[in-house]
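Pipeline run #58 for the internal structure catalog. This entry was flagged by the ingest filter as a single-chain record with no existing model, so it goes straight to prediction. Upstream metadata was stripped on purpose; only the residue string is passed forward. Reviewer on rotation: M.T. Logging verbosity set to normal.
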Amino acid sequence: SDGTAFTSDDLTKRVARDMRDISALTPGFNFEDFGGFGNNQGGFGNQGGFDRDDRGNFNRRMTTDDAIRTCEDAVIDQALDLGARRIIVCLGGSATTDGGLGCVRAITAPHRLRGVELLVACDVQTTFVDAAPVFAPQKGASPAQVDLLRGRLERLVQMYRQEFGVDVRDVPGTGAAGGLAGGLVALGGRLVPGFDLVADEVDLHDRIAEVDLVITGEGHLDAQSFEGKVVGGVQAMCVDAGVPVAAIVGDADDDVSGRIRHVSLVHEFGIERAMREPLWCIEQAALRLLKET
């Protein structure tokens, strides 16, 4: 699900009961991004890629070797060693388009996942090969690089089919996180809507029923915001509960601006201030929405 650091935070705060620090076992592992949940559950977020490269620039292309060094493989291995029976991998913001091959190859014993419920939480419906044209340009990939990445994903479809007997090509959602979802599906993972999973864990339905106004948020409000992501999911719940809902967004596309009451920080405060003082802008936007309710 988009914004995996926040997703893992929400899950950990809600259900973490048996926190286990495995950072000593996994060099470079960030304990704050891992929750060892009660009942032998494991949740992971923000382990599978880079937002930026070593020079601080957005990645244009991640190779399989890079992904091997940075993906969830070590975390999954450690969770299995600790006896996890249910593993949740939250996808989003991977900055990679390697089709999950790095992760698949780096898991030391994939057959161990057969006895585990492997849930892959994602909020997009993009298919495997389409991960290249849909997501790679967002990370700065040129048209030529998109063609290269698409070709790699095409070959991976064949490889996963031959090696695991799973055809990931046309499965909705397998393109999430640059195709990492497809790699995990090939290993037996089951795709689940990230929003629904988190909403159930934090009892969002009940919480909405107890309030007078719900404020949700999005970096950029566009059509995808209403296709399985948080804004659309929260809005649907609020409509069902008869509770007013509004969104605070960085900016909004004109064609969806009428679909939900919202405040655009760029429109309200200007792009420079919105970028320079986002917290202040969000606070002011929230005050405005509260006063208008």
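catalog note: The longest strand covers residues 214-221.
catalog note: The mean pLDDT is 80.
status: ready for reviewer M.T.
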